[in-house]
Amino acid sequence: MKKLLILLLPALLAGCSYYNSFVERMNTDTLEYQCDEKPLTVKLNTPRQEASMILDNQPRVLKQGLSASGARYTDGVYVFWSKGDSATVYKRDRIILNNCQLPAVER
């Protein structure tokens, strides 16, 4: 019985890892913005209250912060601020990506 358990343990652990990554993908929305400067892909994970994106050629994970209007995510240097279908990205209070828009959804 112990040998069977030892043989099955790696498979069980791999299954748990696969399940966790599956659940993570299910909780993540990918948004494709078109900004004045360049396109921006943002991955929003609502349960973790995180937004991840590539800024200055580096992957960044921003945590959700307080916002009077819209949604605001920051890491202390970068701020991603979205409201409706538009967004702006700041670096130390300076706009680096402006007029970011999600494409219109055809119905």
Automatic annotation (TrEMBL):
It holds the Pfam family MliC. Keywords: Lipoprotein, Membrane, Palmitate, Signal. Residues 33-95 form the C-type lysozyme inhibitor domain. InterPro entries: MliC, MliC_sf. Residues 1-19 form the signal peptide. This is C-type lysozyme inhibitor. It comes from Siccibacter colletis.
